[in-house]
Amino acid sequence: MSSIDTHAHLYLKEFHADFDAVVSRAQNAGVEKVLLPNINEETIDAMKTCLSRIPAFFSPMMGLHPTSVTKMWRDQLSIIHEELVQGGYIAVGEVGIDLHWDKSLEKEQVQAFEAQLEWSKTYNLPLSIHFRNATKQVVDSVRRVGENSLRGVFHSFGGDREELEMILSLKNFLVGVNGVLTYKNSGLADTLIHCPHDRLIVETDAPYLSPVPYRGKRNESSYLPFILHKLSEVWTINPKQVAAITRRNASALFALKE
Fold it and tell me: Measured between alpha carbons, how far apart are the two ends of the chain, in Å?
């Protein structure tokens, strides 16, 4: 059951002690590729080191995560952009707006996000979007910059039917689903019944959001089959079909080589 983990941070310190074993378990679980979104200017080197160890297994993205945005966001983006233009990146990410913990830098987050949306247009790259407690704000930004010229994924989707429809109204965007789908009280299963099969991809967001039965522990890419199996229950189709559908969607969005 071949699959693609479209969002994981395997370059973080949580994986330094057993990196090779984490990769081996993922491959044994059928994960053929892991996509690595950047976080900020301080994680670039760690991500590139991770990539250099097994380049065929990883594909990198470059962006500034909204919770890393500061008052000096222009200086931060200068560093990120310098790396992006060197090439080799499959997407602009992880970018977006996060209003869950702190709204004091909302203006700066929006400005930094829209600047990176422009990069997506300039370099013809898809986006990996973080939108915690900010779905409307993110959709508004996409529409301001130009929804017809942009494409990507709203990663770690965990919303309701209204939120899903808001995202699906952007014709070039998909939703990324992870371990939250397996949480008993998330309500996500009822929402995803209404998601077209060609508008969804799967992810782990490792080391975060581990699926049941590993909830509360470090997440890793080898747990992706738990998400595929749960989604197969939601869509009432075989897990292998779910893996094939989501793999095809991811390959198309990120222009991955088959």
Answer: 15
Report the alpha-carbon angle 42-91-170, nearest 5. 125
- In one-letter notation, the amino acid at residue 134 is A
Q: Rounded distance, CA 198 to CA 192, Å? A: 12
Q: How many CB atoms sit inside 10 A of residue 230's CB?
A: 23
Rounded Cα distance between 88 and 237, Å, is 36
Q: Hey, what amino acid is at 89? A: Y
* Cα torsion 65, 195, 181, 240: sign: negative
Backbone angles phi, psi at 177, to 5 degrees: -120, 135
Nearest alpha carbon to residue 2 among 197, 234, 242: 242
Name the phi and psi angles at 102, rounded to 5: -150, 125
Backbone angles phi, psi at 146, to 5 degrees: 130, 90
The residue with tokens 């942009």 is 150
Distance from chain centroid for Cα 191: 19
The structure's pTM equals 0.97
Token pair recorded at residue 109: 């987050």
The dihedral of CA 256, 195, 176, 128: what is its sign? positive
pLDDT, tens digit, 9 for 90 and up, residues 133-165: 999 999 999 999 999 999 999 999 999 999 999
Nearest Cα neighbor of 249 from 226, 230, 231 is 231
